[in-house]
């Protein structure tokens, strides 16, 4: 495949959308979305990522209009202002910003790197990434994300959504000797449990559908802890002062009946889709969600402002470098296609010319080399100017010229060459160029 891809993307994130809108943009199976995008005509690559504060999809196609059309119906139930459409360059830069943590609710958080990696592996598993322009863009984004954390203080303090939730809880209730319940034992549940472990709470219970996973998280804590199955939620919620939910389930796990006997309880919902019914329980149960964490995360953003500026500069430089790499690659692909097409035609015509010449008498090795050298010289001289023009077109973002060249010099094209005014024998072979017979007869 010749890599002339143009990327188009679409994003629904906390920057422009509410929790409900992000939830509406989520799909049950992101890999199925990747497969669906790949099935659309002209799409060469596809990628989708879903986290608690974003839902995004990207495609690469040979034509920008095809790429845009492929993603234009993403999140059809979300209001227009909450959906951000990204063209080729916007997509490349946005992916770098996402990987660096600049687009995260918690500026510089580390979890997004693993989420990008996992999403890329899932897309690759269904053929969504195949070494083309989108695959390259994701690889570059992850490299930038790693550099940002290694070379700046963008993630100083390792604040995560889990720790932000605990900080919010500390502002709304007294955590000293409090009892906490973590619902979910995935990555976000683990981060929340660790953040609670560093707080003044006296007991932490981890509830999960798979008890063994909950036991693994609980065993990681220094605070007195226990692991329970999801069926024990009502009893544990009744004893808890703080509930942090992050299961990743498709339906709410904490419902009215879950907190019916909870009394004074603060529930913080980190799930996407929602893990806690918004008005669960009575007036004594306070429910908070990701939108309520903005005060905490804004403060973290202010603390990391100088680091963010350094990362912005890093992204600017890497973005320019990536564009130059793509330009060189596209020009090289076009030039290679042109030379491959010319080589195929040269070899075919050379065989026919040699056969024609052999009809006048057996050729010597020197004579054969003369004909081959002439063919090589003709190809080189004829393609020198187009080669220069294609590289200049790439440097000037003239992709129409590049795309036209790809169509004209398709390496798979195997039809007879167009030779206006050129004489051909009755069997369709061309006569050797003027002067060749005379030159050979003189040798």
Automatic annotation (TrEMBL):
Transmembrane segments: none annotated. The record marks 94 as: Important for activity. Its EC number is 1.2.1.70. The active site is at 52 (nucleophile). Residues 406-443 are annotated as: Disordered. Residues 10-152 form the Glutamyl-tRNA reductase N-terminal domain. NADP(+) binds at residues 184-189. InterPro entries: 4pyrrol_synth_GluRdtase, 4pyrrol_synth_GluRdtase_dimer, 4pyrrol_synth_GluRdtase_N, GluRdtase_CS, GluRdtase_dimer_dom_sf, GluRdtase_N_sf, NAD(P)-bd_dom_sf, Shikm_DH/Glu-tRNA_Rdtase. Substrate binds at residues 51-54, 104, 109-111, 115. Residues 167-296 form the Quinate/shikimate 5-dehydrogenase/glutamyl-tRNA reductase domain. Residues 311-410 form the Tetrapyrrole biosynthesis glutamyl-tRNA reductase dimerisation domain. GO terms for biological process: protoporphyrinogen IX biosynthetic process from glutamate. GO terms for molecular function: glutamyl-tRNA reductase activity; NADP binding. Homodimer. NCBIfam families: hemA. Catalyzes the NADPH-dependent reduction of glutamyl-tRNA(Glu) to glutamate 1-semialdehyde (GSA). HAMAP family: Glu_tRNA_reductase. During catalysis, the active site Cys acts as a nucleophile attacking the alpha-carbonyl group of tRNA-bound glutamate with the formation of a thioester intermediate between enzyme and glutamate, and the concomitant release of tRNA(Glu). The thioester intermediate is finally reduced by direct hydride transfer from NADPH, to form the product GSA. Belongs to the glutamyl-tRNA reductase family. This is Glutamyl-tRNA reductase. The lineage of its organism: Archaea, Methanobacteriati, Methanobacteriota, Stenosarchaea group, Halobacteria.
